Amino acid sequence: MVVTEEIGVPSWDLYELSIPCTVFGKPQPDLADTWYDLRLCGINGGEEGGAAPSGFSLRTPYSLDDLVGADTVIVPSVPDACVDEGAPMPPGLVDALRRAHAAGARMVSLCTGAFALAAAGILDGRRATAHWMHTAQLAARHPRVEVDDSVLYVDDGDVLTSAGLAAGLDLCLHLVRRDLGAHVANQLARRMVVAAHRPGGQAQFIDLSVPATDDAGLSPVLEWARERLDQPLTVTDLARRAAMSPRTFYRRLQAATGTTPLQWLLNQRLARAQSLLESTGLPVEKVGELSGLGTANNLRHHFLKQVGVSPSDYRRAFPQPDAAVPQPGPASPKSAAAVPPLPV
């Protein structure tokens, strides 16, 4: 992970810095035999740092040269002046990112880190996002980038970008899901007491006119629905359970999650199907039935559309399908600045 400010780090930037440290930095041997090897690479890595007039100071033995050869490089943020005033990127950063990308690293940005990837030309011709407060600047400054200000994150294969704050956590958990499977990502999210999976296409914009107490009131009915994914469920069923009219339930769920009730159900059922494919040897027809997706053809249709591969191809990425406990994907990450590549 790139640390662009080592002396006088603003307190508001610590959140983006801490997300990859929390997700990738602590081994989870009970979830996966081989975890990630996270290295913080500073602009002045290995040098003695001075005193910070304000904020915090960080010291790391790794420098930008260590980005080259990494499996994945994460840029969590860049200095405010680079975004607000158009100041140049920290010395050596753009060149190091280009070299890492040319060497085959998976490139990831959180929030304003997208400005660094864009400055390096890595986002040219690609769809990307950042915090909605900065997407207009990103688009104006880098017209060759297809900026989408309405999503939580964009997965473009070997280049991934996210919006700010909590969306960065969504993207990091998405990387774990890609690398080690839905079960590992879900268990890690549970330990972090956060939502297991918010799809990247979910809207950044949440209707804040809905009181938080109303949003919290949705939790029991959503948990009730998760326990009955194998049963027919309609918006009317969920609204009745929540003691709301269907119109009110639709509006409140969309305001709280950024998606419609039917799309929310589909996302939950796909997550259940992924877990069953990873952890059991059940026939595809049974997986479709238990996840609530119905027939095997219907499961294949939604899996291809949302996940990008067929259920059978997805299952082949996970060894020992008959094991009672879900197994992580086949990953043996080498020393890296952040995360190993998606297993092939």
By helix and strand content, what is the structural category?
Answer: alpha/beta
- Kindly estimate the percentage of residues that lie in beta strands according to DSSP: 5-15%
User: Strand sequence of the main sheet, in spatial order?
Assistant: 6-7-11-10
Radius of gyration: 21 Å
Q: What is the percent of helical residues?
A: 40-55%
Instruction: Give the CATH architecture of the largest domain.
Output: 3-Layer(aba) Sandwich
CATH-wise, what's the superfamily of the largest domain?
Class I glutamine amidotransferase (GATase) domain
Oligomeric category: single chain
Distance between the termini: 23 Å
Which ranges are low-confidence, i.e. pLDDT below 50, for 5 or more consecutive residues? Answer: 206-214, 320-344
Give the secondary structure arrangement, pairings included:
Elements (H helix, E strand, L loop, with lengths): L1 E2 L3 E3 L4 H11 L16 E2 L13 E2 L4 E2 L8 E4 L4 H5 L8 H10 L3 E5 L2 H7 L7 E2 L6 H7 L4 E2 L5 E3 L3 E4 L3 H15 L1 H11 L19 H5 L2 H8 L8 H7 L4 H12 L3 H19 L4 H8 L4 H11 L4 H6 L28
Parallel strand pairs: 1-3, 3-5, 6-7, 7-11, 8-9
Antiparallel strand pairs: 2-4, 10-11
Helix pairs in contact: 1-6, 6-7, 10-11, 12-13, 13-14
Keywords: DNA-binding, Transcription, Transcription regulation
Protein name: AraC family transcriptional regulator
GO molecular function: DNA-binding transcription factor activity; sequence-specific DNA binding
